[in-house]
Structure formats: structure tokens, C-alpha cells
Amino acid sequence: MDWQALSVSIRLGVGTLVVLLPVGLAAGHVLATRRFRGRAIAEALVAVPLLLPPTVLGYYLLTSFGARSPFGAAFEHLVGHTLAFSFPGLLVASVIANIPFVVQPIQRGFEAIPPGVREAAACCGLTPWRRFLRIDLPLAWPAVVTAAILAFAHTLGEFGVVLMVGGNIPGETRTMSIAIYDRMQAFDDRAAGLMAAVLLTVAVAALATTTALSRRIGRRHG
Amino acid sequence: MDERTLAVAIHQATPVPIDVTFTCRPGEVLGLYGPSGSGKTTILRTIAGLHMPAHGRVSVGDDVWLDAGTGLVRATHRRRVGFVFQDYALFPHLTAIEHVRIALDPLPARDRDGRVAHLLAAVQLADKGRRRPAELSGGERQRVAIARALARDPAVLLLDEPFSAVDRVVRRRVQDLLATIQQSLDVPVVLVTHDVDDIVRFASHLLVLDRGRALACGPVREVTTRADLAWAGEGAGAGAVIDARVTDVDHARGLATLAFEGGLFVAPAATLSAGCRVRVRVPARDVILATDVPAGLSLHNVLPATVTAVTPDAARRQASVQLAVGGERLLAEITGDAVDRLSVQPGRRLYALIKSVSLQVRPLT
Question: Does the CB of A125 have a partner CB in chain B at under 8 Å?
């Protein structure tokens, strides 16, 4: 059992959520409630990581992390080391790979609120920010929790992008999925099996939690 | 003009063509009446800032909410409107108390609780404050929507078909409740409806809309007695609406006497009591014209009348006849043949005959 890998995976999952949830809430709300030019393109862009093979996504990220790209060069200049094959680079990759898993459920959650409810809130004198906090967020709460759990579980399981961008550096970029692959390559079936069981448990627990939560909130709201 | 008068002008070609200008003074209830698709709801939404017309101006006294000419648009949450939506649009996650409180948030917490209790009591929901919409009946939800709309002390109250989604008994109760509240409110009230009953019961003024244009606008009794308007044609039919007072109730005979500016009506006593103010709707189809006072009839109401206008329909099969009865007007719908036989023309003196049971009498609170 590679505890270090578990720690990297959890840090990556939590870090992804910390960065992506606020972005997902904002983007999901805009996509659900506003009509603007280029909305269809924005929605398509959000969905791209869903369809792109992880290795292709990894390839492009790795290229843009390199010292020859402006983004990579800027990061290296500021931080002192390259993004590629580092935890921060892994985090950037994970955030991008998880955009659809966070934005889409949140967008659907906001879309499920009848527009009249939001208009009624405006007629009650609520500012846009207070409408978001008092009306939109409480009503879309199950969708937000679902998005968070989906993204977390997906981060734990991500393999292709992580291998491409992060490589397999213990304590830095070796996540659970990579460690399982690593142990299998070394014919260490016991360690691989144990870690696989841990990930399986996490996945089942995540699904059970989302189901129970959405049912409970559904009952409360009738 | 009162400094709190609502003034509205809207001109747009799309999405629904609208071309209207009107005002509504505090204490007035302006009914926007017309078939669906005539732009009623869009007008209401424009006042609230939920719709932006191509050209238009909305103001309450000196306070300008919208002036498309100068590009001035005040956001909905900064307009002091109370809006009762057709489907109520309640907040599923909030209790009745929270519905009212959320609209009161600018107030200090101390004053808030008292006001919440007062408003819920006003809509008779004091004992159901802790329930969410899913735990309330249709009529109760409607009253939560009303309390919420009143909470922020609106400068204008907007009602979008507020009675359409509940059954007849509840409808009558909420109409009474809203009429009581309206009298103490003293702000302009705009009511969208396609039901004549709402107009008779509730509106003081009437704007008849057809495909976004105002066919007529004015006090209810003037608009409902115009012979050139087939405005209520598709619903309950045309008919004059007249304000009257119950002068006498004869319980033995089961009849009430109602005094209006043109004379007396006799109507079924029902639940009427002497001294109470009523609105009487006289359906034009139920008014019979006669050249003499006939003898041996069962009906009670024989009113001397003078013809003031005759408007035949396109095929000349039927005609709308406007009659002056004292200071009031009545409408009668008769056949083209009757127009010829009785030589009905402006200035002609006739008698209007109306069965007492044909009179639709609504007590005013």
C-alpha cells in the first residue's frame, strides 16, 4: 500500500475542487441563466475534455507547459521550475480535465430552477448576488454536491492525463491510479489489489453519498 | 396628477406587438383585459423591469424606472414593485415566514418580525407560517405570494391573473381578501385578467387590449357600456357594470332593492344587507327593449331609457344598443330585425326590461 500515492491523490482531488468549484459555480450560473453571443461555443468548449482522449489532452497540456510556450515560460520564470512533471502542473491538468464534470451538473442544477422564481426574487428587492446566495445556491445545492463528488472521484481515477503530464514521481506526481499500474508492472499483485480496493470503496461511497443526499434534499423540497 | 401615479408607455413590434399608453393613480385598480397573446403580461413585466421594450417609458411620479429614449433602465430589484405571478413563483426551500422576511431584509431585524406577523395575519396565514410551499394548498400558496408582494411596501402592485389557478370558492375568498387589502394600500394596482368576473369584482378602471393596442381605456362603467366594443364578446359577453347601494332587503319576498344613478334595480336578496355597496353587471343579452310598459309580466325591472347609440355587427344580424338610464348607461344586445321593428335609433325613448335573476350582483367590501 503506497500511502504517499494516496496522499498525492487526495491533495490533488481537494486542490482541484478548491480551484474548480468557484469557477464552476460562476460558469454554470452564467450558462444557465444568460443568453449571449457565443454561448453555444462556450458550452462546446466546456465539454471538450469529456470527449478528448486523455493522452491527447495530456499531449497539448505538456506542450503548453514547456519552456517554449509563453505560459510555460512565464510559470518557470515566476516559480523557478517547470510545470511539467510537478504537482502544480498536475493540478492545472486535473482542473482542466474536470471542467465538464463540475460545470455541467451545476449548470443543469441552475437550469432546473424556474426562471419565474428568480424573477420573483428580483421583485422582492434581492440584488443579483443575494439572489444567487439565497435562492439559486440553496435550490441547486444537490447538483453542486454531485459535481464536487464526481470531480473528486474522477480525479482519483484519472490515469492518462496524469501519466502524460506528471509522469511517475513518488510523493510529487505518483497518484493512486499510477501506483496501481506501477505495482502491477512490478508483479506486486497484493499492493495493487489493496489500492484498487481502496479506490473501489471511495467510488461506491461517493455514489452512495450523492444518491442519499439528493434524495434527502429532494424530500425536504417536496 | 398625483406624485405617485404610475405612467406607462410601451411601443414595440416584437416579440408581441404592443402600442399602449396609460396611467394609473394610487387607489385605482386598472384591469388589463384581453385575449391571450394581446400583450397583457408583457406590459406587466415591462413595469417590473423583467421585459425591455424597444421604445417605452415607465415612471411612478417623478421616479423614472425606464426611459428607452435616454437608455435609462432601473434594475428590477431597485424598482419598488409587488408582483403576484400567475403560477405564484414561490421559493420551494423557504417557509411562508421566510418568504415575507426575505423581501423585508433591508429593515432592522427588530422591526422585521412584527411586520412578518402582521402581513401573514393580513392574508390569514398566521398559523401556517412555518410551512413550505409543498405543504400548502393552492389558495394558501396564492396568499403567500400576495404577502410576499406586499412585504417591501410596493409603490406599484402588479397582479398577473392572480385568480386563475384556484377553484371558484377559493377564488371568491381571495378576491375579497385582496379587495380589502387594496383599500388600505393606496398605491396603483394593475391587474391582468381575461375574466370579466375579476373586472367586475375588483377593477375601478379598464383597459381593453387587442393585439397590443388599447381598444378602450377608462372607468369600468364607461368602458363596459360602450356600444362599439365587442370587447367581452368571446367570454361572458358584453354588459354594463354599474355601482349601486342596497337600500332595502325584503326577506319575506327574497328581494333586494338597489339604488343607482339611473333608478332602482330589484335583485335576489341572497346574502345582501341594507346599506352595503354593490357592483351590478347587466349582461347585454338579458336586456329586453319595449316601446310600452307591458302588463302581466313576471319581471321586476322596467326602466325608462333613451337610446344613445346603435352599433350593428358586420352582418347586421345583431346590434349593440347603448341606453341612457338616468345618469347611467346600459347595453342591450338585440337582433337586427328588432332594431327595424322598434325603429331603434339614437334619441328613441324605450323601456329596458331585465329579469331580477339576470342581474349579477357583487358586494363590494
Answer: yes
Which string of DSSP letters, residue by residue, matches B39-83? SHHHHHHHHHTSS--SEEEEEETTEEEEETTTTEE--GGGS-EEE
A-interface mutation test, from B45, B77, B115, most A Cβ less than 10 A away = B77
Parallel, antiparallel, or unpaired: how do β-strands B189-193 and B156-160 relate?
Answer: parallel
Looking at the structure of chain A, the number of domains it has is: 1
What's the ipTM? 0.82
Question: Higher-confidence residue: B47 or B221?
Answer: B47
CATH code of residue A197: 1.10.3720.10
Is A117 part of the contact surface with chain B (CB cutoff 8 Å)? yes
Q: Could you tell me if B127 and B196 lie in one domain?
A: yes
Instruction: Please tell me which residue of chain A has the smallest CA distance to B84.
Output: A120
pLDDT digits (tens, 9 = 90+) for B110-149: 888 889 999 999 899 999 999 999 999 988 999 999 999 9
**Structural domain count of chain B:** 2
In a domain, A90, yes or no: yes
- The pLDDT, as a whole number, for residue A217 is 60
Q: Residue A220: its pLDDT value, please?
A: 52
Would you put residue B52 in left (φ > 0), alpha (ψ -120 to 50) or beta? beta
**Residues comprising chain A, all counted:** 222
Q: Which domain holds residue B280?
A: 239-243+275-363
Q: Please say whether the beta carbons of B357 and B195 come within 8 A.
A: no
